[in-house]
Design a protein that fits this description.
alpha/beta; Rossmann fold; 2 domains; 10-stranded mixed sheet; binds adenosine-5'-diphosphate; binds alpha-D-glucopyranose
Length: 486
């Protein structure tokens, strides 16, 4: 098979920028696809937060001040390039000072619709100027979901893309990119109103993700269970009927993990390395973590870790119901790292104030600390309302940090409930979104922790799991190949 040509467009790419798992996935797919010999070129914005001191970026001679015409105005971008670390994958940064020089990568500002429309168009314009017709345009989330429609409208004249197919990966259907229909002309869709959903135009809006779902050749999402769930009213955020209609073009591929980055054997951030054969280093990491977070160490008190964006999706309301009682009555510790909405930060701050020796909370984004928590906790808590895939529970398995998760999306696909009779299973899984169910899982984990043999077994079961990108990337390749020959 000749190498595939893949134009991969994403608003986050690790190690350059990351708000959540999208960044991890984009960086890993770039690296692993290029290692398999494919010609993958990654396009992302050149946000002002990207640290250029350690990054040898170069301006691309023939991609300077490229004009992109929108309805009534023109934007200009310059492309810079750098290689993804440890790979030959070329990343193209779209530099447009006026749009990407902001304090945050996502904003509520009036030109948000344009910031990512430009990214989508710039990726296409770069391909044109490179004379490079990709086999696949791989789009991710609403930010790049206009690409299929752009290819079918204003770029339809270009024979370079005649054979190109499009894939749209939904990492999170909760964010759709909904803007006022006033944007339609500016986006250059004025002459193509018949291609926009009339119900949206009637409501005075445009929905980027929906347009992607309608016009892409193939939709993927990041776990098989989530692929099913988004076809239901409960999880589809209003797009379930559209997805049900396109279900034969919808596939669920579980995310992988880059074990070079997330494995206790070679994690450069953690103070003590350990492995499945010898996990003595784990207890030392626990001590170090507790010391760092100013909590007293007690080998019999399990540490429950949390690392998360603090949003509605993640289900922390369930902790409102159970945390006070658990912290009052059990000898345990909670270490929480997160940033996001005020109501959740206030909740964790007040729990910290009320139980200073039992709960520590770091409000912010801290990569090193996230690795320490994975290595130093005994358990990891994710009570998500919905979870397209989730990465931290998969990292946790490798670190022998037993996940406590709700049975939804990728959590259901990656963690199996521990059965104390057969000793099979890798974590504590509860089904219903209510406090009693979470409490049951926390109690079950707490009691099992005090049975050392059972605990070693469950840690071992988890550490033996393999969710490597090495394996998962083959599923994307298979899909691309199929699509190419359609
Ligand atoms: P989501 O993409 O919905 O946020 P995932 O579990 O897929 O959820 O990925 C989250 C990623 O972001 C993980 O790599 C996690 O370690 C990281 N992360 C989330 N919050 C923080 C934080 N406050 N500090 C450091 N890393 C974080
Ligand atoms: C999203 C989801 C998360 C998933 C990540 C990467 O942000 O919330 O579950 O793991 O994307 O696909």
């Amino acid at each position: 098979m000749p190498p595939l040509k893949i134009c991969f467009v994403s608003s986050e790419v690790v190690p350059f920028v990351k708000a959540g798992g999208l960044g991890d996935v984009s960086g890993a797919l770039g690296k692993y696809l290029s290692r398999k010999g494919h010609d993958i070129r990654v396009f992302m914005p050149y946000y002002s937060s990207i640290d250029t001191r350690s990054l040898p970026v170069q301006v691309v001679e023939f991609l300077q001040n490229v004009p992109v015409h929108f309805g009534g105005f023109t934007l200009y971008f310059t492309a810079l390039t750098a290689k993804l670390p440890d790979s030959e994958c070329e990343v193209y940064f779209i530099h447009c000072e006026g749009l990407y020089n902001r304090s945050k990568i996502y904003t509520d500002e009036g030109d948000e619709y344009l910031r990512f429309a430009l990214l989508s168009r710039a990726a296409i314009e770069c391909c044109q100027r490179m004379g490079w017709g990709p086999d696949i345009f791989h789009c991710n989330d609403w930010q790049t979901a206009l690409i299929p429609l752009y290819l079918k409208t204003i770029y339809q004249w270009d024979g370079l893309f005649k054979q190109s197919k499009t894939v749209l990966t939904i990492h999170n259907i909760g964010y759709q990119g909904m803007f006022s229909a006033e944007a339609v002309d500016k986006l250059m869709f004025g002459g193509y109103r018949h291609m926009l959903p009339p119900e949206d135009l009637g409501a005075g809006m445009i929905n980027y993700l929906k347009l992607g779902i309608i016009y892409t050749d193939l939709i993927t999402t990041v776990s098989p269970t989530y692929a099913q769930e988004i076809q239901t009213a409960e999880y589809g955020s209003g797009l379930h009927q559209m997805l049900e209609y396109r279900k034969y073009r919808l596939a669920g591929i579980l995310n992988g993990v880059d074990y070079h980055e997330w494995s206790p054997e070679n994690d450069p951030y953690i103070p003590h390395k350990y492995s499945m054969e010898d996990f003595s280093g784990k207890e030392k990491n626990k001590k170090a973590l507790l010391e760092r977070m100013d909590l007293p160490y007690d080998p019999d008190a399990p540490v429950y870790g949390i690392i998360s964006r603090l949003t509605w999706q993640k289900g922390f309301e369930l902790l409102y119901e159970v945390l006070g009682d658990i912290l009052s009555n059990y000898e345990l510790r909670f270490v929480v790292l997160g940033s996001g909405e005020d109501k959740y930060t206030r909740f964790f701050q007040s729990a910290r104030d009320q139980f200073p020796g039992k709960l520590a909370f770091y409000n912010g984004y801290h990569i090193e600390l996230s690795h320490w928590i994975e290595a130093g906790s005994d358990m990891f808590v994710m009570p998500s309302r919905y979870e397209p895939c989730g990465l931290n529970q998969i990292y946790s398995l490798k670190y022998g940090t037993v996940p406590i998760v709700r049975k939804t999306g990728g959590l259901a696909d990656t963690v199996q409930l521990y059965d104390w009779v057969t000793q099979a299973g890798t974590g504590f899984v509860f089904e219903y979104f209510n406090g009693d169910s979470l409490r049951w899982a926390i109690d079950y984990a707490f009691n099992t922790f005090h049975n050392k043999a059972a605990w070693q077994k469950i840690m071992h079961n988890g550490m033996a799991q393999n969710f490597s990108w090495e394996v998962q990337v083959e599923k994307y390749i298979e899909l691309y190949e199929k699509l190419k020959s359609w």
